[in-house]
Design brief:
This protein is 26% helix and 28% strand. The longest helix is centred in the middle third of the chain and has 18 residues. The termini are far apart. Helix 1 crosses helix 4. The mean pLDDT is 93. By secondary structure, the chain is an alpha/beta fold. The protein is globular and about 45 Å long. The chain has one domain: 2-Layer Sandwich (BirA Bifunctional Protein, domain 2), CATH 3.30.930. An eight-stranded mixed beta sheet has the order 7-8-9-10-6-2-1-11, sandwiched between helices. The chain contains five helices and eleven strands.
């Protein structure tokens, strides 16, 4: 599977830029791209199909956006966020949807184990962090989510459109008052921030997924499109559309 992927890293970028660029890559990207990023200010992102009334903590974050991907709300603070965008025919995403989550999470699990966390796919059963009534992603788990110590610590969601796939993932380094008792790096044997953990994650994406990552930046056209798309992400009309 050794193919070339562009690697974009953006630390401390705004919610509207983060979501606008991912949408631009989904709609118009011309090459497979892996992004690693963090958020400033922090933001609560709602899943595409969520109603605002379903999220008990809405309004508690510095800003609120609506993601293109599904799933529950995420408070983007103290986390490493990743996105992959590529044609749906790529081997990572060819075939049933479920195995594509398992492939990506397999690389994440190996990176987490390297810092001493007993990460694994949840499988059957439930987690102590489960509380579906809150509407938060990390309070609802599925068999393909990543957990350690009985709590969810990694969640992903996808959007497929026009023959392309956008895959969002969140890896929790620390928790927030909105998310409470979830799995974080607190019990790791090595101390890491989102930025210091990123090279380990990239190593395992190279090894486990066979990706050849080439550092790059968004093109001027992608930046322009991201700004155009992102301008609506924090508007009341966009956030409250459901």
């Amino acid at each position: 599977m050794q193919d070339s992927w562009r690697l974009i890293t953006t630390w401390g970028t705004t919610p509207e830029f983060n979501m606008g660029l991912d949408e631009a890559l989904l709609l118009e990207g011309d090459q497979p791209t892996l992004r690693l990023y963090t958020w400033s200010p922090d933001a609560l992102s709602l899943g595409w199909f969520q109603k605002t009334s379903e999220v008990s903590g809405i309004g508690s974050a510095s800003s609120t956006v609506r993601r293109l991907t599904g799933g529950g709300a995420i408070h983007h603070e103290g986390e490493l966020t990743f996105s992959l965008c590529c044609p749906q025919t790529h081997p990572l995403y060819r075939g049933p949807v479920g195995p594509s989550y398992a492939r990506i999470h397999g690389a994440v699990i190996l990176a987490l184990r390297q810092i001493g966390l007993p990460a694994r796919l949840r499988g059957e059963g439930s987690l102590t962090s489960d509380d579906p009534a809150s509407g938060m992603c990390f309070h609802h788990s599925t068999p393909l989510d990543v957990e350690w110590n009985g709590r969810k610590g990694v969640g992903s969601a996808q959007r497929r459109k026009g023959g392309r796939v956008l895959h969002h993932g969140s890896i929790k380094v620390t928790s927030t008052p909105l998310e409470g008792n979830i799995a974080t790096f607190e019990q790791a044997t090595e101390s890491h921030t989102a930025q210091s953990f990123a090279p380990l994650l990239l190593d395992h994406m190279r090894q486990h997924l066979g990706l050849r990552l080439v550092p790059g930046v968004p093109s001027p056209e992608e930046r322009e499109r991201a700004a155009e798309l992102g301008a609506r992400y924090t508007t009341d009309e966009w956030v409250h559309q459901r």
